[in-house]
Design goal:
S4_RNA-bd_sf; 90 residues; 5 strands; alpha+beta; Structural Genomics Hypothetical 15.5 Kd Protein In mrcA-pckA Intergenic Region, Chain A; 2 helices; 5-stranded antiparallel beta sheet
Length: 90
């Protein structure tokens, strides 16, 4: 499954076009390799996604073509969620 579709179906990112844009900006890695929107994701892959001041690391558990809201979290597990501190405002 393509990374942009996985991020949308798993509801990590709400729109596929936004997921595509983030991937094509080089802000997503799959197993320590920079991903493009067309990069393939498989179970047990580790994804690192950079959103502004937040970095989300997840492990892919399963791939589903469609999900209901309650089933979306079955697709991945959060490994870590890190926030950069804004030292300018302290």
């Amino acid at each position: 499954m393509r990374i942009d579709k996985f991020l949308k179906v798993s509801r990590i990112i709400k729109r596929r076009s936004v997921a595509k844009e983030i991937a094509d900006q080089g802000r997503i890695t799959i197993n320590d390799r920079t991903a493009k929107s067309s990069s393939e994701v498989s179970p047990n892959d580790t994804l690192v996604i950079k959103f502004g001041n937040k970095t989300l690391t997840i492990r892919v558990k399963e791939l589903l073509d469609t999900t209901k809201k309650d089933d979306a979290q079955r697709m991945y597990e959060i490994v870590s969620e890190d926030y950069e501190r804004d030292y300018k405002n302290e």
